[in-house]
Fold S-adenosyl-L-methionine-dependent methyltransferase.
Amino acid sequence: MAGNTPRIVELAAQISTSVAQLQEQLSAQGLPSPSFDESFNATYPPNVTQLRDSLLDASAELHELLLDPLMVLFKFASISNLAIIDLVARYKIPEMIPPGGRISFEEIGQKVGLETNVIRRFLRNAMAMHILEEPEPGMVAHTSISKFLANPAINGWAEFEGRDTWPASTRIVDAVQKWPNSQLPNETAWVLANNGKSVQDVIATEPERAMRFANGMGAIDYVPGYNMSLLPTVYDWASLGNAKIVNVGGAMGQAAIELTKNFPNLTVIVQDSAAMMGGGGGQLVPAELKDRITFQEHELFAPQNETAPVYFFRLAFRGLGDQFAERILKAQIPALEPGAKLLIQDVVMPEHDVVPLWKERTQRSVDMALQVFGNGRERYLDEWKALLAAADKRFVLEKVHVPKDNLLGVLEVTWKA
Ligand SMILES: C[S@@+](CC[C@H](N)C(=O)[O-])C[C@H]1O[C@@H](n2cnc3c(N)ncnc32)[C@H](O)[C@@H]1O
């Protein structure tokens, strides 16, 4: 479009063209058009990803251009939104609404012990965010968003976000001022908000909050691009042949299950802490995979005792500052034979303005959460390179696989001794 065209006109034209193309694609494939109707379940074919990205960014830019500066700040600073999401989740409002049906403010109020006008005030706030709907005065119905919130993992995440992440996040600046540049897990915003307790302390001593934390982390699987089922597609696992893989920090074997299910030549040793192993690990492993997945208690920072051609780390480094991440890498060295591979599946943080802005906003807010919880961080590619080099020059980064539409890249590192 001509250089003098006002930005809002340019954006509107772009939106108009892209929406028409998107709708054409959806209609051609018999897919529903986006809607807040509770029956809408978003499914977008891969060939519309770019259209959606450009529409999301253009419509957000248009929206933010048209707001006054104070309202733009208000949009991003709006803490009450999270309080309302917390309320809807904590009182489990979505579970009270029959699918396809409705329930009155009054009845919800009776269930939760609040007067009608009090619950109405809260829920109309939720309605202003498209969470819930008032199809007729006084009645509450689902939208596609409240329906999604009824999923226990998502409900658990919302509660965790409101009760644990948010209070800690309000202390980010205080923590940075108190402990500038700290990489320590006990010098964080979380610690300031929790009477000196770190995340690990809270998990060890407060079972209810530990459960909320686990639920919060469980919701990661629902973030587009993070789902464990994508694991087989992000790397050429078949090229490893008959390989034994040590999955360091492999939790309850979720990744091991996905890998062995899809690649019959692979066997996996899952290593994690005693707490995570619980009754020895393996509770999730289906019978037919049990002979190819074994579990081992192993502390992340302890010297590696298992020699294997491949070591796999999934989301193992981002929760930690560099000095700790470096220690994990160094701890592998005693077991490494020349040519051993380290496959690191983690975020490779995009530079500013490289990926669609709506994705960048999400990634940057997750990055802040990592800082809050333990002074962890997402790393840019040059930071990954620096981390590997600082651990040992013999860690050679061979390749970075960042599959399209997947937020998690795989860094392929060879031990060149
Ligand atoms: C962010 S989770 C990633 C889990 C899994 N790899 C995945 O992709 O879902 C980090 C894992 O590292 C483990 N971990 C953290 N600190 C540890 C330690 N000191 N020793 C052993 N495992 C540890 C945790 O128990 C957890 O399973």
